[in-house]
Amino acid sequence: MAVDKLLAIYLNDHLAGSTVGIKLARRACASNQGTPLGEYLERLASEIESDRQTLERLMAELGIRPNRLKTIGAWAAEKLGRLKLNGQLTGYSPLSRFLELESLYLGITGKRELWRALQRTFESGLPGFDFEGLGRRAERQAAEVEEHRLEAARSALVAPGHKPVGSTQAQAESPGSLISGGGS
What are the backbone dihedrals phi and psi of residue 105, each rounded to the nearest 5 degrees, phi first? Predict the structure, then answer.
């Protein structure tokens, strides 16, 4: 299989992933409208769109056509992803927010690795493409999303007024504490 074909597959996979990322960021933004998180997600969605445009420009520069079937498949997968259980029959829950941010984090780290791989692949550079700068931006995006994700985890995974499962009392009663001699 020719290297150009493998590069086309790889870039089209990331193009499809960006379709999911944009849709997910816009949906999460709408669900958190009027909050600091909603404002952040609006900015993030714009940046993801800009990154997608850069990827499309790169593909055009390299003579790689977008695979519309992959893009449509990614769009459909994002729609199906909305059907996942979130602890409520209808509506948005704290778990929804947490899972959306976690998915965005995973997508952004994948995008970061795309830019790093392209930087290494095109060591002499491609005019008009700053892969190192794109990688730094993805790194910043990942750090920001991770901060929001961890805050959302606290809201989603621990009921107000309850201690997390890993609290001191829970650890003292865990089977592991009995095995290590801490419970006898």
Answer: -60, -45
Q: What is the pLDDT of residues 125-175, one digit of tens each?
A: 889 999 999 999 999 999 999 999 999 998 888 776 667 666 555 445 545
For residue 158, the surrounding DSSP H or E stretch is: none
Which of the two residues, 3 and 73, has the higher pLDDT score? 73
Q: What are phi and psi of 126, to 5 degrees?
A: -120, 125
Closest among 42, 21, 44, 22 to 31, alpha carbons compared:
42
Dihedral angle, C-alpha 39, 80, 103, 110, nearest 10 °: -110
Neighbours of 159 (CB within 10 A): 10
129, 54 contact by CB (below 8 A): yes
Please tell me the pTM assigned to this model: 0.78
Structural domains of the chain, with CATH: 3-179 (1.20.1260)
Contacts of 86 (CB under 8 A, 6+ apart): 92, 93, 95, 96, 99
Could you tell me which residues are beta bridge partners of residue 153? none
Q: How far apart are CA 105 and CA 111, in angstroms?
A: 10
